[in-house]
Specification:
With 255 residues, the protein is an alpha+beta fold. It has a 6-stranded antiparallel sheet with strand order 2-3-1-9-8-10. The chain has a 6-stranded antiparallel sheet with strand order 4-5-6-7-11-12, covered by helices on one side.
Length: 255
């Protein structure tokens, strides 16, 4: 088990970003006692923090956040990709070289070679990760097919906060948790449907979440059809925010 946290702030408001990121990541120490790491791009306003439990690669080559060989991608990852050895062999046969032996490095190689959409389709395992694309200047938050690994995000004004646990988000002093009674009622009737605190969202199973400076959207990368089961319609609060998270949705950011 590992844990990661991060934030994406508007450029020009990043003076305290490093301290906030460290507080968020420190809250996840219990998830990764073996190592900690931080990466920031102040110009872009993005920061990633990681607590590592070393399992696959015990060396320093498995340190996270990890930067791809080209420098384009930065990843903070929690979980395990079971078929990483097969993917590594395929990538090596295609001329890609690796420094260490971690599944994280293989994930980055796959994303560089095949693109995020195709690569994530080929990952067999349980995972959640944050991926920064320095070229496109996009952040993708991705969860596995059945949501085994946790990943939450929330907005504090114009700042996007995300992490493996809610306590990481609460480490940002500017974020205020309020209970939305509409969401609470839905949670009581359908406990798996939504995390109760207002403006907290769990990245949807089988989804990635990509945020641009001017566009925010979700994209589904895997779907399993269950015949005969009822798929509830999307519910909205009075403020227009969608509060059902298992089913395809459009993310509506706070004003």
């Amino acid at each position: 088990m590992c844990g990661f946290a991060g934030l994406w702030m508007r450029t020009g408001s990043t003076r305290d970003a490093g301290a906030i990121l460290r507080r968020m990541t420190e809250c996840l120490r219990h998830r990764g006692p073996d190592d900690e790491g931080y990466w920031q791009d102040p110009e872009a306003g993005i920061g990633l923090g990681h607590r590592r439990l070393a399992i696959v690669d015990l060396s320093a080559e498995g340190h996270q956040p990890m930067i791809s060989s080209s420098g384009r991608y930065v990843i903070a990852f929690n979980g395990e990709v079971y078929n990483f050895a097969d993917l590594r062999a395929e990538l090596e046969s295609d001329g890609l070289a690796f420094r260490g032996h971690s599944d994280t490095e293989v994930m980055l190689g796959a994303i560089e070679r095949w693109g995020l959409c195709q690569a994530v389709q080929r990952f067999a395992g349980m995972f959640a990760f944050a991926l920064w694309d320095a070229t496109a200047r996009t952040l993708s938050l991705v969860r596995d097919r059945l949501g085994e690994k946790p990943l939450y995000y929330a907005w504090s004004g114009s700042t996007l906060l995300f992490g493996s646990e809610l306590k990481a988000l609460r480490a940002c002093a500017s974020w205020r948790v309020e209970i939305d009674r509409d969401v609470l009622a839905l949670f009581r009737s359908n406990p798996f449907a939504q995390t109760p605190p207002k403006l907290v969202r769990s990245v949807v199973w089988q989804y990635w979440f990509t945020d641009r400076a001017t566009k925010r959207a979700t994209g589904q990368w895997w779907r399993r059809e269950f015949r005969g089961l009822y798929a509830p319609p999307l519910e909205r609060t009075a403020g227009g925010r969608i509060i059902v998270s298992e089913w395809p949705q459009t993310f509506i950011p706070p004003p």
